């Protein structure tokens, strides 16, 4: 029985077919090229055998195929395959370089928040933007570079938010409260994207030096503020700052995971931090000595 010129399949049916025989043979049945069928699969996020799968060792063909991922949001439930050239499915607009990079980063961030870090493959990100995978690689050399770009962008946005909160106050303790509240409100508004990104050991390795420099600057600045506002000596201010920062970060993690409302987490963490600051002030009053030998000192 001759094949009809147009075929309508579900993604599951297409997935089953491409893993049942060589892509070129199946494409010939559909009266299209093997490359055309591969592009259809890529566009619909249907995994297909890699090049050489059918001609290589038989062990390859006995391996379990990768699972069929969920259907993309803007993907029709049925697959229509025809030998006739279909009209373009997407409007294509040439964007400036910076705008395109941000568009790709936005799409990747959305996938990460929806499905986790593993979902932001270059292929899937390109598909969601409406460009080819090759075009995505014109903007980012690899997935790690894309993730680093998103992390740096998020960190810059967070830093600007915190600085904006600090600039509304002139007294140190008020600045500390405002920046802490702004941090939690930022997490509540933007989600745990930055925390999810930094969950990757490989990405942390890429960002290690700049994050170390940033942490050093924050610790030093905060310790200097504590010393000026409360008279806390360096050998207490520096480790005290690290402990207070740990409370803030942990509170952000709990909020990002939806463990409690932002108001509840802010209230509890603020109580803990105020208790820790009161204890530091009490220790300082009892110990006005010069910092011990080898203890950390504030930089001049």
Q: Count of DSSP E strands?
A: 2
Which spans have pLDDT < 50 for at least 5 consecutive residues?
none
What is the CATH class of the largest domain? Mainly Alpha
- The gross shape turns out to be elongated
The SSE order reads EHHHHEHHHHHHHHH
- CATH architecture identity of the largest domain: Orthogonal Bundle
Strand percentage: under 5%
Helix percent reads 55-70%
Number of domains: 3
Largest sheet: 2 strands, antiparallel
User: How far is it from the N-terminal to the C-terminal residue, by CA?
Assistant: 88 Å
Nearest-integer average pLDDT? 82
Structural class: mainly alpha
Quick structural summary:
With 300 residues, the chain is mainly alpha-helical. The protein is built from 13 helices and two strands.
What do you see in this structure?
It is elongated and about 85 Å long. The protein contains 13 helices and two strands. It has a two-stranded antiparallel sheet. It folds into three domains: 7-82, no CATH class; 100-140, Homeodomain-like (Arc Repressor Mutant, subunit A), CATH 1.10.10; 144-286, Tetracycline Repressor, domain 2. With 300 residues, the protein is mainly alpha-helical.
